[in-house]
Amino acid sequence: MMLREQLEAQERAWRAFHDWEDRQPQEQRQPERILSDLGTILDWLPVSSRLSDPDPEKLGVRKMFEALRHMSR
User: Fold this and answer.
1) Is the pTM above the cut of 0.70?
2) How confident is the model at residue 26 (pLDDT cuts 50, 70, 90)?
3) Measured between alpha carbons, how far is 26 from 33 in angstroms, rounded to an integer?
4) How far is the C-alpha of 26 from the C-alpha of 17, rounded, in Å?
5) Which of 3, 26, 37 has the alpha carbon at shortest distance from 11?
6) Residue 72 — very low, low, confident or very high, per pLDDT cuts 50/70/90?
7) With 60 as the cut, is the pLDDT of residue 1 above it?
8) Residues contacting residue 42 through CB under 8 Å, at least 6 positions apart
9) How confident is the model at residue 27 (pLDDT cuts 50, 70, 90)?
10) Torsion sign across C-alpha atoms 27, 30, 31, 32
11) Helix, strand, or coil here: 58?
């Protein structure tokens, strides 16, 4: 598959996901349940993935805080 075909396939997959997501009923969830679900997803990751830090300098966190500072002005 060529790069263009891969991108088009990925776009189709995202469109299908968003269409599915739009048809789902809105559900108000308790923060405790959300954190529990995130913990479960984290448990599904291989140990090797959990032990390595892809962003040791925390650049992503810094960018997020900068964006929040900008938005709060």
Assistant:
1) no
2) confident
3) 15
4) 15
5) 3
6) confident
7) no
8) 50
9) confident
10) negative
11) coil
